[in-house]
Design brief:
single chain; alpha+beta; Aminopeptidase; 4-stranded mixed sheet; 4 strands; globular; N-acetyltransferase activity; acyltransferase; GNAT_dom; Acetyltransferase (GNAT) family protein; NSI-like
């Protein structure tokens, strides 16, 4: 799947250990799909995930993706709204 990955981002802690990761994939069109936003449980609730998603969205814009979508569990709705996503008729 990563061969279709346009770009990815990760966050490392002070010990250089990867604590967060996510990526945007697509087929080279104007639409991207954000996937696998993961933050280590010990580091959740610190804004790391929000910063990661916002950086991926900025990179999406630089890459020329005018639309980025994401599918998520309902319990993560507020997280993605905080990140700037807007709920659509089929999701955010």
């Amino acid at each position: 799947m990563l061969e279709r990955c346009n770009f990815w981002a990760g966050v490392r802690n002070e010990n250089n250990k990867l604590i967060a990761f996510g990526y945007v994939c697509g087929m080279g069109l104007e639409h991207g799909y954000m996937k696998d936003i993961i933050v280590h449980p010990e580091n959740q609730g610190q804004g790391i995930g929000v910063d990661l998603v916002k950086e991926l969205l900025r990179e999406s814009e630089r890459f020329g993706l005018s639309i980025v979508t994401v599918t998520y569990e309902e319990s993560n709705t507020n997280f993605y709204k905080t990140c700037g996503f807007k709920l659509g008729s089929s999701g955010v």
